[in-house]
Amino acid sequence: MGSVQIVTTILAAAITAVAVWLAARAVLKMVAVIRLGQPAPERFTDKIARTRAMLVETAGHTRMFKWGVVGAAHWFVMVGFVVLSLLVLEAYFEVVTTEGGLPVIGHWTIFGLVTEIIGVLGLVGILVLMAIRLANRPTRPGGRSRFTGSTMWQGYFVEWIVLLVLVFGFVIRGFKVATDHFEFPFWATPFSHAVGAVLPDWEDGVSVAAAVKIIISMTWLIVISLNVTMGVAWHRFLAFPNIFFKREPAKPAGSGLGALRPMTSQGKPLDFEEADPEKDQFGVAHVEQFSWKGLLDFSTCTECGRCQSQCPAWNTGKPLSPKLLVLSLRDHAYAKAPYLLAGGGKDLTGEEKATQAQLAHLDVLALAEADKPLIGAAEEGGVIDPDVLWSCTTCGACVEQCPVDIEHVDHIVDMRRYQVLIESSFPSEAGVMLRNLENKGNPWGAPQNTREDWTKGLDFEVPRVGEVDDFEYLFWVGCAGAFEDRAKKTTRAVATLLNEAGVSFAILGEGETCSGDPARRIGNEFVFQMLAQQNVETLNEAFDGREKSKRKIVATCPHCFNTLGNEYGQLGGEFEVVHHTQLLAHLVSTGKLTPVQPVDGGVTYHDPCYLGRHNRVFAAPREVLGDAIAGDLTEMPRNSERSFCCGAGGARMWMEEKIGKRINVDRVEEAMATGAKTVAVGCPFCSTMLNDGVNGKGAGEQVEVVDVASVLLRSVKPEQPQSSKESTPVVG
Prior knowledge:
- The protein has 29 helices and nine strands.
- The chain has helices spanning 3-34, 47-59, 69-83, 85-94, 109-135, 152-178, 190-198, 205-225, 231-244, 292-300, 306-310, 312-315, 322-341, 356-359, 364-370, 386-390, 397-401, 408-421, 429-440, 478-483, 485-501, 517-522, 525-542, 558-567, 580-589, 619-629, 663-672, 684-696, 708-716, and strands at residues 264-265, 268-269, 473-476, 505-506, 552-555, 576-579, 603-605, 678-681, 704-707.
């Protein structure tokens, strides 16, 4: 060992010792903060499925590859980080001697070949990612970027570190080639040999380059250890457990989609018949009241902004960015952590749990952070502004796009639950809707005895449950389908098509009440459970004696479809629920319905969030429309899982849209740009919102918004009268 090797060895050992100590301290701090969250025992079920989902999602990059070039580049960088960590380890042997290498595998030609390929592709990948970040920097001309609000220096720092580590890996190999110490042939490592051809024959070059590589790597570890909220770096470790512990590992995309996480207290579902606000947690009022998985979510955020780029609120000038919301909660949790770890915190009655002695030594900044309300305006020092909280449509675009399975919608609704149930703080116009749900069983406040009015004028009898001995499907009409004029046309169209196809069905009529979706999404879990339990009891009675596979329900509203199919199971209601477009597609494919006259004028289809993204029903409505128009749809740029929300979800149907551009107008402009004369929908909320947008654009005579069922009916029974354009006022 020469003098150079002595110096490089000492430097490598010293910086590594510091980095490892700081990293261990940082990991312990992160674990302590995450453990402050509430229990979530359901996250430990089915470990085999969780392990499989984690491996598929990480190794297969299933979420990232949706973004094409970005996904491929990131995959090569990720694989490079994992595999080429062996070369960082090898550098510790190379600082000691120029002929050093990994024991056993370090001299295998296959090892040289694999690391050569991965190194080259990693270099290409990181350069692509750097170019993309620069091209989308927030300061660029042309509008907001998905990186707006991200800590840009951290992204640049991580990318440059990756680049330099890869470069010095080849520099080490190049010096080995130049000094004739390289063990791999040219055919296996051509790039390394090319680098070696331009480097001098410097015997100590290997050790010096190896020391530089170690210093760069350990500098990265030191920096991230001193910045535990540096998600752009820490996500490469935290993504694995965050994906492993996602809510539903069987779901290939967006485990936080579909059903909402039940309202819990101390990790157990809340029973409102026994719940006590002084003993049980109602929603989330303080950051430590999120589950530990929520705190892990916040810590894992990569700040990539994919959620932000797809969010309808953000894209129409609202203050909500799912990314910025998560980052605010993350920064607040870690800033408040010293206070919480010292024993501080408020009990459910609002009393301080810690003694003055416990808090005496705390930094004033941690105490100040502890005093911040979780929800509050800027002048109140709130962590999350109320306008941010109430801008969410719960469309799920953020959850669907997140590469590390953060469950944004669950966290937003948890905060809403506390605001509604304890603080009674929510947009005033939504109060009318909630009162109507409680008193009338529907958000419009319509009389219950008018639920069957849509059946009047049909040329066949619509059977009621209890009036017929047997039926294949229970037709869940829904509140919109029973009371809203446009939606009633869809209800009549579906009933007519089912009758035409010879499908036996029955309705509940006045026995049906609201599914509870708007109450649950706004945060009023009490009203939701009241309505849901009533409906579960009614449905269980209607299906008495039937096994689950024969307890079939068809629904025209995706919100009802989602609630009955995904959430009623939490309350003892197990049913097979299909959307009407799924049933109609089946009836057409089996020849029970036959389109005879193509609908002309061009048709585009708007994917409802709760049908498409939340429940992955993309093909059925397109199959129905394809048969009805005897051709191809004109797709909007944002379609299928990236469809843009109409603006009505999350109970926003009953709230005024006062900030920024109206979401429905943005969507209507996109639909009109296709040139299609018919905008087909599969949801009564979407129908209302898009009709409102078309009328607002003054295009009511040129463009018609109509349900998929009505389009099919016109093709199957062309003698049916065309529905007239509606001018019904919009509620929301």
